[in-house]
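Journal club side-thread
Mid-discussion, someone asked how the predicted structure for our own chain would compare to the paper's figures. Pasting it here so we can look after the session.
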Amino acid sequence: MTMAKLSLMIVLIFVGLVVIGPALAPYDPLASKLEAQLLPPGGEHFLGTDANGRDIFSQILFGARLSLAISVGVVSLALSFGILAGFAAGYWGGWPERIFLGVSDVFQAFPGILLAIAVAAFIPSSAVNLILLLAFVGWVGYARVVRAQVMEIKSLEYISAGLALGISRRRLLWRHFLPNMAAPLIVQASFGMAGVILAESTLSFLGLGLPPDVPSLGKLMDSGVNLLMVAPHVAIFPGFVIMGFVLMFNLVGDGLRAALK
């Protein structure tokens, strides 16, 4: 079994655990128990408790579920807009392409996470706003892939022949352009999932993006930073989950890239 297949199996297991997380969580992730502050892993609390006596395992299940949902939402939205923008720029050229290249150059002039931090500081904290923000930051990568693919495909002889025979552009789009663009977009989306999980965790760690009462892996790590010498498990376990998600999605992306060449 290749590393990519093993990573895909692990990702599917992670996703399954995350989807049924509320059913597996032994405690309310927001329920505080002052008498159970900073308990070590073991006993009634599988991964211990935080400074407020909240069960870390329950918080990780809910936080990972939210991170995965945000990642799917961001990648879906960014991919959809990227396909539209990239197709318009690559197929028609002219002023749509000039506008696209100018806008994409502006976006790529700034590191994505810094742009997200700058914007997140001025918008209300919510999961919907966070999805819109990260999609706004990340659509350019998908659009550039689509533009390059469209420019290559439209130069093929059978596309020119189809247009000469009167085949509609819509049919060409669904029958030829999108199937030929699918492989690189799937690979890009796999890497995008890892990037969004890392970006969401970073913003949550900094206190941005999500409301304070929403369980988040980044917030859990933030709360454990000052407790590393006393209760390292508070920060270590959510950190391992974030690392696992990012590593597995990246390995799956590498495997897909090799398989779909």
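Post-session note: The chain has a mean pLDDT of 86.
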